[in-house]
Structures are given as structure tokens and as C-alpha cells.
Amino acid sequence: MVHMADAQAGATLRALHATFFAMPNPWDGASARHLAAQGFSALATSSAALAWSLGKRDGAITRGEAIAHAAMIHEMTGLPVNGDFESGYGDTPAGVADTVTAAMDAGVAGCSIEDVFKGGTEPLYGEAEACRRLEAARNAIDRASGDFVLTGRCEAYLEGVADPFGTAKARLKAYAAAGADVLYAPGLTDADEVAAIAALTDRPVSVIAGLGGVSNDLAALERLGVKRITVGSGLYKQAFGAFFADVARLAEGTAAFGDAPASAIFDRLMPDPGS
């Protein structure tokens, strides 16, 4: 059974989809605490940012690492957290169900399950198998009698599939029928395609912002019917952009960190050790 506090986190995340909201992606305690302090109502993990922060390539993290990371962000902020759980960390539908069950037990409010098939000859699971994996996740959620937001994610754009728009439309409609609460096709940047995906079903649609085109205009995304935006690994990359620039200057003989936040700012972000 899901603990009451965890069930509330899922219910809170679900309710946010009634209106448009931003769900940015921290990668550690400091970034999570800062986003919470700025008033964001929910946060999401980034599997890529987590992998890089652990010294691994994107796609190399484990189920345990992904769930522990999402749970840490929830504990640091008290906000509902949506886990980027890649393809569900399971070779079978039952394995995906195990991941979702473990996430609920850890207090995670929701997760995305994508359709990438790393061991296959094609980049994506067949549509029927991808649906079975989401159905297994849905059944696990229903058995737990809790509230957990399941996002069905189609990777057609990011995996270079022929006709990514047509593939995403067909698959996201099927994923809704399989039990996904939210639909998500990372890589959407065309306004007409965003509008068509948003109109597919009555399920809310999520978009990665900041990839160019209409994805950079949050007000336009809202007008097109999008309910949720994330930024994937974008904030992590931006932070490392400044790091790379400072390291390059350091290698050239200059050390000037005057624009960096003061140490006291970071300490103030952290929980009071006496509380």
C-alpha cells in the first residue's frame, strides 16, 4: 500500500495538470532546493543529468539509482517529483511494474516510461509491446490503491524514426488507451504538430521546452493546449556551460569568479540541520 504522504504527492501532481505548469529538472540537492524556493509546484528528474553527475553515460543508470535520486529530491523539497525512468528499467512488462511499485513505495509522485528498446534491432519497442509495458505499470498502480501519475513517452523524434510525427500520434493515442495519464513526445518544436498531439485525446500533454521553435515560447505552448513543460537536461547543460567557460579561462591563466553565487547562498538553501 502507498503511504498517505506519498499518495498525496501523486494527487497533487495530478491536480496540477488541470492548468498549465512548468516542472523543471534539478540534478542535485542544491538545484532542487533553489527551484522549490522559486515557487515551482513540482519537479522532475533527468536521467541524462543524473547519469552524467554519477560519471556515467546517459542510459547507464540503474533502477535503484533513478528511484533513490527522485526520492531524494522529494525529501529535499517536499514537492511532488516525476521520475524520468527511461524504458522502465525492466526487460519485461513485469519488470516495468516492479519499477513503478518501488517508486511508489519510495514516495515518488509519478514517472515517465518511454518506448526505447536498447537491445532491439529497431530503436523502439513494437507498439503492442510498448502498450503491454504501460498496461503492466497501470495495473501495478491500481493494485497499490494510490495516486501515481503515469506518463507514456514516445521517443520517435529523439531516436530518428521515419515519420516521427505520424509515429508519435499513433503511439500516444495507443498509450492513452493502455493507461497513461499524461502523453509525451520529446522533440516537438512545430506549432501545428504540438496542437495535433494536444488534441489527440483528453489526456494532458507534456513538452520539453527550450529545444527551439514553438518549444521556446511557453505562452504559445499553453495556447496550443499543452498542460506541462519540462526542460530535460537543459538546466544541467546551462550550468556546465558556465563551468566550461570558467575552466577554459583558468587554463589560460585567469581566475575570475565574481559572478558566482556566494557560499552563504548555498548554505541558506539547505535544510536547517537542527530541524
Summed up:
The protein has 275 residues and is of the alpha/beta class. The chain contains eleven helices and eight strands. It has helices at 4-16, 29-37, 47-53, 63-77, 93-105, 127-144, 164-177, 191-198, 218-223, 234-251, 263-269; strands spanning 21-22, 43-44, 81-84, 110-114, 149-153, 182-184, 205-208, 228-230.
Topology:
Blueprint: H1 4-16, E1 21-22, H2 29-37, E2 43-44, H3 47-53, H4 63-77, E3 81-84, H5 93-105, E4 110-114, H6 127-144, E5 149-153, H7 164-177, E6 182-184, H8 191-198, E7 205-208, H9 218-223, E8 228-230, H10 234-251, H11 263-269
Parallel strand pairs: 1-8, 2-3, 3-4, 4-5, 5-6, 6-7, 7-8
Helix pairs in contact: 2-4, 5-6, 6-7
Q: How many domains?
A: 1
Strand content: 5-15%
Total number of beta strands: 8
Radius of gyration: 19 Å
Main pleated-sheet profile:
8 strands, parallel
Mean pLDDT: 95
What percentage of residues falls in helices of 4 or more residues? 40-55%
State the CATH class.
Alpha Beta
CATH-defined topology = TIM Barrel
If strands are numbered along the chain, what order do they take across the biggest sheet?
1-8-7-6-5-4-3-2
Q: Please mark out the parts with pLDDT under 50 across 5 or more consecutive residues, or reply none.
A: 1-5
- Class of secondary structure makeup: alpha/beta
Tally of separate helices: 11
Overall geometry: globular
Tell me what the CATH architecture is. Alpha-Beta Barrel
Measured between the Cα atoms of the first and last residue, the distance is 29 Å
Provide the CATH superfamily: Phosphoenolpyruvate-binding domains
H-E string? HEHEHHEHEHEHEHEHEHH
